[in-house]
Design a protein that fits this description.
This protein is mainly α. The protein is 81% helix and 2% strand. The protein has helices at 2-24, 29-34, 36-40, 45-70, 91-121, 125-138, 142-154, 158-174, 178-194, 198-214, 218-234, 238-254, 258-274, 278-294, 299-318, 326-349, 353-376, 380-397, 400-416, 420-436, 440-456, 460-477, 482-498; strands at 75-79, 85-89. A hairpin with a 5-residue loop joins strand 1 and strand 2 (85-89). The N and C termini lie far apart (106 Å).
Length: 505
């Protein structure tokens, strides 16, 4: 019976579609001459329309009839222990209730998810996170938890993001969904990286990469490769960073993934910068800003890129002969000012302490960059004043890379002012901070400046030890920048000098 009703429903639906098409499609004179039945409809359009409507009503009514004929009762009559007629609920009734409840839950979870998705596209991450949270509270899904975490990460509320990812990760493992599991692991690694838990982040990225390789998910592989490149870049390990960023760029270009290609540019620029390939670095940073205008990306990312452009102009200003190009330094300050304005504007919109603290960290790094330009221009007192707040912030918040960078600049300023004790104390503290954060690039810079200190003290033997250590650390970091060239030159000069008995020790 149910099969017959299903066939009947299909027939009436087809009949309705045919009738509506017959009266709505304008046929040409040639078609009307060729096919006689097309002329048959002349003067009968209204009757055909009524027949179509009747077919629609009958076709839509048949499922209701089928359900009534086949539905089992929600309650059934039974006898009580006393032998009296009574009723009890049936499993069929429960199944119907669960089906209706599931439909309502799915609809509500979908509505919340879609609202959050729209708000994410508008960069309204606070409201997006709230809607994604309501979606998973209504019906826990991997998609809901993933976007809830991403929106929370962008606010940022990293503890909330981590909790959401762990919940989603648990569901993905229960359902044996390796692609979602890889995505959760990768983004959890991003969170740990932002918290400077680099070893945990590295382990998670490698797990995610293995899963994506197993499922042949090239886009997932590229995202993880980009994350690994960024992590190694932050750790000052640019040889490894180069390997992974090239892999990410290759997949992005071959598979035409525009957003991924945009994401690789800043990391690629950083690698070029550290290798003193300044024109290439500047090109990558500027191309990144072009993508920023096309894609819905964070203003903070734009500000970071402007700061990177400022650093590149600063390096360009130094030139090969040690003569400062002041026009380049002006461009550098202009870029820093643009970054500062965005940080300031974004900070005023922050609702939580965690997000504000992250912007303060970016501002602190920017002040270190500004101080370095002042130092290059010979304005060492301005530089030292600019470094006071970043050093306080880095010490208070255990920002080891920031602390090492700031202390190196402070030591260089002290050396220029002939404050020898302050200089060596700053370089030594910078090296220890870089050592603690396992950053070979910053360790190399601290060792190189220690070498400069001992040159100023006319202790060539000790200077050579530090320059040699700096060279080895630069090689470990995998960079070939201006600092490496200066260290190599110093080693050659000092090696020759230490062989000369007349050279002071």
């Amino acid at each position: 019976m149910t099969t017959f009703l299903s066939i009947l429903q299909w027939f009436f639906n087809v009949l309705a579609a045919f009738a509506l098409a017959l009266i709505s499609i304008p046929f040409s004179q040639g078609q009307r001459k060729k096919y006689r039945f097309l002329r048959w409809k002349d003067g009968r359009q209204f009757r055909i329309f009524l027949a179509a409507m009747l077919a629609v009503v009958v076709g839509n009514g048949l499922p209701v009839l089928r359900e009534r004929l086949t539905a089992k009762p929600s309650v059934e009559t039974v006898l009580s222990p006393e032998g009296q007629p009574t009723q009890r609920a049936t499993s069929a009734g429960l199944a119907k209730e669960l089906e209706d409840a599931a439909t309502e839950l799915k609809r509500a979870a979908t509505d919340y998810f879609n609202a959050g998705f729209r708000e994410m596209e508008d960069l309204d991450y606070e409201d997006a996170a709230q809607n994604f949270q309501k979606s998973v509270e209504t019906l826990p899904t991997m998609s809901g938890y993933f976007n809830f975490e991403m929106a929370s990460q962008y606010i940022p509320k990293l503890a909330q993001a981590e909790k959401a990812f762990l919940s989603g990760l648990e569901i993905s493992r229960k359902r044996h969904n390796k692609n979602f599991e890889g995505s959760f692991l990768s983004e959890l690694g991003v969170i740990y990286g932002r918290q400077n838990n680099f070893d945990q982040a590295l382990a998670l990225f490698n797990q995610a990469l293995t899963l994506f390789q197993e499922t042949r998910n090239r886009q997932g592989e590229a995202v993880v490769a980009s994350n690994l490149a960024n992590l190694y870049s932050l750790r000052g390990q640019f040889a490894d960073a180069s390997k992974y960023i090239e892999k990410a760029k290759k997949i992005a270009q071959e598979d035409h993934i525009v957003s991924l290609e945009a994401g690789t540019l800043v990391i690629s620029g950083n690698i070029h910068f550290e290798n003193w390939e300044l024109s290439e670095a500047l090109q990558d940073y500027q191309n990144s800003l072009v993508f920023d205008a096309q894609l819905p990306r964070s203003k903070l990312q734009q500000a970071d890129t402007m700061a990177n452009i400022g650093n590149t102009y600063d390096e360009m200003a130094l030139g090969q002969n040690g003569v400062i190009d002041k026009s380049m330094e002006e461009k550098s300050f202009s870029s820093y000012e643009s970054a500062h304005q965005i940080y300031k504007e974004t900070a005023s919109q922050q609702k939580g302490a965690e997000g504000l603290n992250e912007i303060i960290a970016r501002e602190a790094k920017l002040l270190v960059d500004v101080a370095e330009v002042y130092e290059h221009l010979g304005k060492t007192e301005y530089a030292l004043t600019s470094l006071e707040e970043p050093i306080r912030f880095a010490e208070k918040n255990n920002q080891l890379n920031l602390l090492a960078s700031a202390l190196i600049v402070r030591g260089s300023c002290s050396l220029a002012l002939r404050r020898q004790k302050d200089a060596i104390a700053s370089f030594d503290a910078a090296f220890k901070a870089a050592q603690q954060s396992a950053n070979p690039l910053l360790q190399a810079r601290a060792q190189a400046f220690m070498g400069e200190y001992y040159v100023a003290e006319k202790n060539n033997k000790e200077a050579l030890i530090h320059f040699t250590e700096a060279r080895d650390l630069f090689r470990q970091a995998g960079v070939k920048g201006r600092g490496v060239q200066l260290v190599e030159n110093r080693i050659q000069t000092l090696t020759a000098a230490t062989r000369n008995p007349a050279e002071p020790r």
